[in-house]
């Protein structure tokens, strides 16, 4: 496709993670030319699993039905037929998993929810296959972004190259440089990610080894909970492997860089002293590396001029709801559709403005809720304490709001808002707040009325 056949402008995407690649897939489907600049030398998925809820699956289906079909080929759910609609079973970390204390497990589930997870590598391979070769340029670390003229952004790379683009989307992750460019002059306190008072350990093992240590508990997604501690585990890789994430609450500040910290195996074991022996046995497959969880609970805007934020650079979230990447996929759907509507370069700003109005309230609410749910899962939520029934009931109210969000309605709202802004530029500053599902957002008043 040449540029002339598609949009009259091109998009530069910084970062080839889930967010950046999804945006490229969505844009290419709408004939909007784009280039993805990635600092790494190749695609590199962290060795871990990822769960996608119905909202994320709907987003990828709307972006490209082939994307959804390919994901369906690699996904895996729970093995037990009676747990197909369950996100997690909640158990206790203590010896006996709480069953001897009369707790027989809580179910976070919904009849319309279908559990689905995959290995991140499998997801990235699918996304890579949907993007023409050459679209992603590796070894391209962006070190500076400047918008000197109203219509062009200058991108400066570490290797000395300088290119111009009509719009830049920072999909460069939680520590990405684009966040600083967008926020520093107006909201400097919101540039750095905030510590979520949690560190995790991660591991993957074969289903066979996991079952030797914990039996059929390994076959379905579960979250074992205790005071300030937790252990989440679920099948990936078509059920041949198991993904483990163990959570430790840390009331202190994270000392030093926002980076992983190696510890001895003894230090790691000391974090799990009160756990059931079957979970402790699985520590054989967990790396003695503490991974601090940071997030972006407040992001007052997702753009400055023609530079905008998407995915974790905009709204990195703690993983208690397994919803962070899903929000990046929703962003990619809305932004790609909006940019697909642009017919003259001076309409780009309207697309960005509508993207911000529609996506920011929803994504930021998910970040805030994930923090809250994380505290509940640590028995630290003031409303629930260690009452597993209340914790389960609360999760069963919150999660469906994420899973069954009406993306089709957001797409319609995005299109209508964009058309109104382009037709009536005077209403650009004239925004009102309307209710969208469980969140609120601002759209041009001519649409809201
Ligand atoms: C433990 C854990 C479990 C999770 N589980 C789930 C889950 O089950 N479901 C879910 O939906 N979400 C989950 N998440 C969240 C999810 O992992 C993230 O939301 C998602 O991976 C973010 O993708 P991204 O593309 O925005 O950022 P990233 O994956 O961080 O990608 C950013 C990319 O930008 C590149 N880059 C950075 N700086 C530059 C630069 N200057 N120049 C060029 N390139 C650059 C990086 O190399 C990288 O490739 C989890 C998160 C954690 C921590």
TrEMBL record:
<keyword id="KW-0472">Membrane</keyword>
<dbReference type="GO" id="GO:0016491">
    <property type="term" value="F:oxidoreductase activity"/>
</dbReference>
<feature type="transmembrane region" description="Helical">
    <location>
        <begin position="7"/>
        <end position="28"/>
    </location>
</feature>
<feature type="domain" description="FAD-binding">
    <location>
        <begin position="10"/>
        <end position="370"/>
    </location>
</feature>
<dbReference type="InterPro" id="IPR051104">
    <property type="entry name" value="FAD_monoxygenase"/>
</dbReference>
<protein>
    <recommendedName>
        <fullName>FAD-binding domain-containing protein</fullName>
    </recommendedName>
</protein>
<keyword id="KW-1133">Transmembrane helix</keyword>
<keyword id="KW-0812">Transmembrane</keyword>
<dbReference type="Pfam" id="PF01494">
    <property type="entry name" value="FAD_binding_3"/>
</dbReference>
<dbReference type="GO" id="GO:0071949">
    <property type="term" value="F:FAD binding"/>
</dbReference>
<dbReference type="InterPro" id="IPR002938">
    <property type="entry name" value="FAD-bd"/>
</dbReference>
<keyword id="KW-0560">Oxidoreductase</keyword>
<keyword id="KW-0285">Flavoprotein</keyword>
<dbReference type="GO" id="GO:0044550">
    <property type="term" value="P:secondary metabolite biosynthetic process"/>
</dbReference>
<dbReference type="InterPro" id="IPR036188">
    <property type="entry name" value="FAD/NAD-bd_sf"/>
</dbReference>
<keyword id="KW-0274">FAD</keyword>
């Amino acid at each position: 496709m040449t540029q002339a056949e598609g949009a009259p402008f091109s998009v530069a995407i910084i970062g080839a993670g889930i967010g950046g690649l999804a945006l490229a897939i969505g844009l290419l489907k709408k004939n909007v030319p784009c280039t993805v600049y990635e600092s790494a030398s190749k695609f590199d998925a962290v060795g871990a699993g990822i769960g996608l809820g119905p909202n994320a699956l709907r987003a990828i289906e709307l972006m490209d039905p082939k994307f959804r079909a390919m994901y369906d080929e690699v996904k895996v759910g729970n093995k037990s037929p009676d747990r197909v609609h369950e996100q997690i079973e909640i158990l206790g970390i203590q010896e006996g998993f709480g069953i001897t204390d009369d707790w027989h497990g809580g179910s976070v589930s919904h009849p319309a929810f279908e559990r689905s997870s995959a290995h991140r590598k499998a997801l990235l391979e699918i996304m890579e296959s949907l993007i023409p070769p050459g679209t992603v340029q590796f070894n391209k670390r962006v070190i500076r972004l400047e918008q000197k003229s109203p219509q062009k952004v200058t991108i400066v790379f570490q290797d000395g190259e300088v290119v111009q683009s009509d719009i830049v989307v920072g999909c460069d992750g939680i520590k990405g440089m684009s966040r600083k460019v967008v926020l520093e002059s107006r909201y400097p306190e919101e540039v750095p990610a905030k510590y979520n008072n949690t560190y995790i350990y991660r591991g993957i093992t074969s289903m066979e080894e996991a079952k030797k240590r914990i039996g059929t508990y390994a076959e379905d997604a579960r979250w074992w909970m205790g005071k300030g501690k937790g252990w989440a585990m679920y099948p990936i890789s078509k059920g041949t492997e198991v993904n483990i994430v163990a959570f430790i609450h840390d009331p202190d500040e994270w000392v030093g860089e926002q980076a992983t910290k190696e510890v001895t195996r003894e230090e790691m074991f000391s974090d799990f002293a009160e756990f059931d022996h079957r979970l402790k046995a699985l520590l054989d497959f967990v790396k003695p590396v503490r991974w601090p969880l940071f997030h972006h609970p407040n992001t007052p805007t997702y753009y400055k001029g023609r530079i905008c934020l998407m995915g974790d650079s905009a709204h990195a979230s703690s993983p208690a709801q397994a919803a962070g990447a899903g929000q990046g996929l929703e962003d990619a759907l809305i932004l790609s559709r909006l940019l697909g509507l642009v017919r003259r370069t001076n309409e780009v700003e309207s697309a960005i403005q509508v993207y911000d109005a529609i996506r920011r309230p929803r994504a930021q609410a998910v970040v805030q809720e994930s923090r809250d749910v994380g505290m509940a899962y640590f028995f630290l939520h003031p409303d629930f304490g260690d009452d597993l029934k209340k914790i389960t009931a609360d999760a069963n109210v919150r999660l469906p709001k994420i899973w069954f969000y009406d993306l089709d309605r957001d797409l319609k709202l995005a299109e209508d808002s964009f058309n109104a802004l382009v037709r009536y530029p005077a209403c650009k500053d004239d925004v009102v707040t309307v209710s969208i599902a469980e969140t609120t957002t601002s759209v041009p008043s001519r649409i809201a009325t």
